[in-house]
Specification:
Helix content is about 35%, strand content about 30%. The chain is α+β, with helices and mostly antiparallel strands.
Length: about 180
């Protein structure tokens, strides 16, 4: 009768697919596609080139890592700023400009806000998240919060043929719809 942990994290992953696609499409004006396969992975990692991460907690808990290639991060940054009305000649010239990481952190904040709201609407469960952190990395860092985070998923996206990924670690939990008991 309940939704198993696999179905719970997969349901969260599906919400991420849809809210990320919708949010980025609106904020960049670009077509955002996602792979129709959700990958089960043993651990989550912060990957080069630009990564944003944030923990969420409340009625359900976990960690989300957004991994962007330089090209994907810069494309999202550029299109986001242009859509907001920023003249192209005032945009950062390269991915190394701190404005790009700051903007990607803000976009991550928006993505998390939409995901949390969608989960609340679907499951009537509440969570909150901290301030996303954005880093530029030259090598991967594997994360392990504690042993209760046993389920991990990776989602793949594209914008203008540039890929980016979301990795989700979620506590071992089960969503049970009490209205169907």
């Amino acid at each position: 009768m309940g939704i198993s942990i696999n179905q719970s994290i997969d349901s969260i992953a599906q919400i991420f697919l849809k809210t990320t696609q919708s949010t980025l499409r609106k904020s960049t004006g670009k077509k955002i596609t996602y792979a129709t396969t959700i990958q089960k992975i043993p651990k989550i990692s912060m990957m080069p080139d630009l990564t944003c991460f944030v923990q969420f907690e409340g009625d359900y808990m976990g960690l989300v890592v957004f991994n962007f290639s330089d090209e994907a991060a810069f494309e999202i940054y550029r299109q986001y700023m242009i859509t907001m009305g920023m003249p192209e000649n005032e945009l950062a010239a390269s991915i190394s400009d701190p404005e790009v990481a700051d903007t990607m952190g803000e976009i991550t904040n928006q993505l998390m806000g939409h995901m949390i709201k969608a989960v609340e609407e679907k499951y009537n469960l509440n969570a909150y998240f901290g301030q996303p952190k954005a880093l530029t990395l030259s090598s991967a860092i594997t994360l392990s919060i504690n042993d209760t985070y046993t389920e991990n998923r990776r989602l793949a996206f594209k914008i203008s043929n540039y890929t980016f990924r979301i990795e989700i670690a979620m506590e071992d939990s089960e969503f049970i719809d009490v209205t169907k008991l």
